[in-house]
Amino acid sequence: MVLTTIIEVLVFGLIFGSVVALAGVGLSLIYSIADFPNFAHGDYMMFGGYMAFYINVQLGMHMAVAFAVGVVSLVALSLVIDRLAFKPLRDAGPVPLLIASIGVALFVRNLIKFFWGTQTRNYAGDWQRAQEILPGVEMTGQQITLVVVAFTLMFAVHLLLSRTRLGKSMRAMSDNRRLARASGIYAERTLMWTWIIGAALAAAAGILLGMNSSLAPYRGFMILLAIFAAVILGGIGSPYGAMVGGLIIGIAYEATPYIPGLDAGYKFATTFVIMIGILLIKPQGIFGGAVE
Amino acid sequence: MIGAPLQIANVEGYLLTVLIWVGIYGLMALGLNIQWGQTGLFNIGVIGFVAVGGYTSATLTIPPSSSYFGGFGFPFPVGLVGGMLAAGFVAFLIAIPVLRLREDYLAIATIGFQEIIRLVYLNEEWYAGGPRGLRVEAPYRDLWESALPGVNFNWMWIIMLVLLLVIFYVVLERLNNSPFGRVLKSIREDEDVALAAGKYVYGYKMRSFVFGCMIMGAAGSIQAHYIGYINPDFFWPLITFYVWIALLLGGSGNNKGAILGAGILMLFLEGTNLLKADLALVSSTQLDAMRFALVGLLLVGLMQYRPEGVLGERRSLFEGGGDSGGSADAD
Q1: Long-range contacts of range A88-91, CB-CB < 8 Å, 24 or more positions apart?
Q2: What is the mean pLDDT of residues B114-122?
Q3: How far is it, in rounded angstroms, from Cα B142 to Cα B203?
Q4: Is a pLDDT exceeding 60 seen at residue B4?
């Protein structure tokens, strides 16, 4: 019995953790390269999720099309927002950017409310049938898809960072922007690609989150704090740290009800406590430092 | 809370309600001003401290019952002061670790604590009824009605808020122009300089943080007793951002600006709320969404075009005003 519980926590932790990790990789890249914590990241996720909802449910198209449209539309939105909201503040330091990102978060969240209302939404499709993947542990088709897609995308980011010129530029920018510029890296272009990648991952994470549970305008902001926890745990600017951090946060989240004295209502609180703990003990995170 | 569409049958009552909210947000903004405006402490956990003040004040003043913790039946002033002390104490505990953090980490840590506080009140049903919350009596109602029959009771809240605002304003202005205030500003401008000058930066930050949170606690106490009700739904993170907008609108670093900003924010929120009755083109949810989307744009616009707010931040220590003590601080 105990073993089944542990496996269950690990499996559900893996599911929630892969969403957190996927979003965390994007948030971490933006944090270290654009140099501010983007408080709109969670609402970006929801926007991607809702665009996919529009295609999948309101237009009745296949989920794969919905996924693609969700990603592309969020990338477009994030680039427009970067140009209009963040670019004029580029040299003002992290605090004005952080405050502006809170404004952007409010704007995007209410854009969603305007078009889709405040009720929760679910994607169409009936693949909820659970399969037994380990003795006593069941996963639905959606959950298996979620984990596979999340890990595939994270592997793609790994290839991009380690094998391409762009990846090299991004790592250089996050290490030392001035030095990167001096050595001929186009800062604006690298930054643009950072937003494209970050937004694409955010949209994917939002859609996967919607597949696993449901969409709601406020959910993005709630999960944002868990994502920050993952990013800080892993070390800002370390995509691999965000991946590991995401999984740890996911498992802690799902393990919460089994901690004596706590119940399911404290799931998010556990992730914040871990975040605050790591800020105190090792603010640079487990894998600390710049994009590796 | 500020939201519901209104049938304005009673103009006086409506205006009083708006003014009371200006006062409550004004208090929160004053508390934030000493932290952010004077000391540069990036606290985005404001509403958490408001919640501690409100809940503590409620628990201290309501009658005993087995369905929640205590119920101590103390008079209102005990609740108010108790709420402030509790908010200050929680702030102290939180500050011990977080004040050492860099500003962006401090922001994330305070917002995390704010959610933890809300989740505790939501989940610990034995303490204050969890999601159901507590009913809180308005103080002095009988006294008011026997002494001033026919006069709207909400005037009592206006008087109380004006009193509190004046007291805190005077104290904060005194602080502002004292050596203590100048050290705070030097920390805001450049922490290392303050350190190099031999100031115990951590201690100054701590006092600024705790005092600011106590004022937020007072706002929470008034809010709970004014609404007559307290539950975790009053303490969503959105409210913290309202307080930030109020302060940034008015001009951070400026105590008058903090109160003025609360006024402008309420004018905007209520003004756009009044449109609800007349606009048939969109649903009320959509109109709400448009209002808050505008609030978001306002925040971005403020950062881009007027980061110093309406009344302007007084970056007086190292820029422009010369370094002749606090003389440039005078209004």
Answers
A1: A88/B304, A89/B303, A89/B304
A2: 93
A3: 45
A4: no
Contacts of B293 (CB under 8 A, 6+ apart): A106, A107, A110, A111, A114
The length of chain A is 292
Nearest CA-CA partner of A29 in A235, A287, A264, A282:
A235
- Assess A80–B contact: CB distance below 8 Å, yes or no: no
Q: Which residues on A lie below 8 Å from B307 (Cβ)?
A: 92, 96
Token pair listed for B130: 């969890």
- In which residue ranges of chain A is pLDDT below 70? 1, 126-130, 135-136, 288-292
Give the residue from B90, B114, B304 with the most A CB atoms within 10 Å of its CB, the best one to mutate.
B304
ipTM attached to this prediction:
0.87
Q: Provide CATH code, domain B11-310.
A: 1.10.3470
Whether residue B212 has pLDDT greater than 70: yes
Q: Which domains does chain A have, with CATH numbers?
A: 2-117+143-281 (1.10.3470)
Q: Which residue among A106, A273, A276 places its CB closest to the CB of B295?
A: A106
Q: Which of residues 81-140 of B touch A (CB under 8 A)?
A: 97-98, 100-105, 107-109, 111-113, 115-116, 119-120, 122-123
Return the pLDDT at B264. Answer: 92
- For residue range B47-61, what is the model confidence (pLDDT) as tens digits? 999 999 999 999 999
> How confident is the model at residue B9, as a pLDDT?
64
